[in-house]
Design brief:
alpha+beta, Rossmann fold, D-amino Acid Aminotransferase, Chain A, domain 1, Dna Ligase, domain 1, 4-stranded antiparallel β-sheet, 13 strands
């Protein structure tokens, strides 16, 4: 296959709260695609038909023009996609990781990287994902789903005290990158946590807190990479620890007994298949003090920034960043 004859549309940015992370992922993909020899075009769907006229403007910290999710339809339907062989989706969050952009590309008849519409839409809804986990026997923390339009704080706290207990985790039901997430050590912190999560989603997930270790497992072509342990400098793996160099320590392969690591990989594959993922993904876990894994969520479009976890797990198997990007592109073309 002559890569010089293949044109890749690298879709980055977008209009979600994870726009900045998406731009960083996209920048890494652009550099890899250059080295691999593909033809490429960079597209920020949030700009619509008003795309930047220079590569540098795609990666600027300041928006080139107003961003809006309504612009997605105009750009997907434009002639810029006429000679594209596949789209590399480097978007994160709403309108990118939730099946929306995937559906638009399918309607246009354009191949794209990663999972399809249904796996993306399920994985973006943490409650739907956990329901699938339960059905297929994947261990996951107990939870409570709250509609912020109809919440009674006192009754909710009573439910937590009689079931999940404090501390508990409060987070938006459909966000990533730990945006809007809080760990509530007591009921005194609960109202503020609900308000924070409610800024990003009408539905808020209250989840059992698993005291222990933070791990993640990457997958490519149906193969689980060695589990990676995350040791954040903060109390939990928040946005700052995720995307700031030096704010987290990463150990891969994770330093746990082989049977524990094998169980993590086994649970990873069940979780991956439970929502019919394709090509690649990353599955996040908490491991309790007794080394029992609890699956948190599936990332159908895991980050590809310089600090991202999927490239780190791939590297543990001898796969470079460029090779990872290449395999993802080739998967989409098949």
């Amino acid at each position: 296959m002559d890569k010089r004859q293949i044109k890749v549309a690298i879709i980055l940015g977008g209009a979600s709260s994870e726009r900045e992370v998406s731009i960083s992922s996209g920048k890494g993909v652009v550099e890899a695609v250059k080295k691999l020899g593909y033809k490429y075009v960079i597209i920020d769907p949030a700009y619509g038909l008003n795309q930047p006229n220079s590569e540098e403007n795609f990666f600027s910290q300041e928006s080139f023009s107003p961003v809006n999710q309504k612009n997605y339809i105009d750009i997907i339907n434009s002639e810029i996609f006429d000679d594209v062989d596949t789209a590399f989706i480097a978007l994160h969050g709403t309108w990118g990781e939730d099946g929306t952009i995937q559906a638009l590309l399918e309607m246009r008849g354009i191949k794209y990287t990663g999972s399809g519409v249904l796996p993306c839409s399920i994985s973006m809804n943490k409650t739907f994902t956990k329901v699938m986990f339960k059905h297929y026997g994947v261990n996951t923390p107990n939870w409570l789903l709250i509609d912020t339009d109809n919440i009674n704080i006192i009754e909710t706290i009573e439910k937590i005290n009689s079931g999940l207990k404090f501390p508990c985790v409060v987070k938006p039901n459909n966000q990533g990158s730990a945006i809007g997430l809080s760990i509530c050590n007591s009921s005194d912190q609960f109202t503020d946590a609900i308000k924070l999560a409610g800024k990003y989603s009408k539905e808020v997930l209250v989840e059992e807190y698993i005291d222990g270790y933070e791990l993640t497992v990457g997958i490519l072509d149906g193969h689980a990479f060695p589990p990676l342990e995350i040791k954040p400098k903060h109390d939990f793996y928040d946005y700052t620890c995720k995307y700031t160099h030096g704010m987290s320590e990463y150990i891969v392969p994770a330093n746990f007994p082989e049977d524990v690591l094998n169980n993590l990989k086994h649970q990873t594959m069940i979780a991956y298949n439970s929502i019919s993922c394709q090509s690649y993904a990353r599955i996040d876990f908490r491991l309790n003090k007794e080394l029992v894994p609890y699956c948190l969520e599936v990332n159908t479009l895991p980050g590809l920034t310089s600090t991202s976890l999927l490239p780190k797990t791939a590297k543990a198997e001898g796969i470079t960043y460029e090779e990872l990007v290449d395999k993802i592109i080739l998967n989409s073309l098949r």
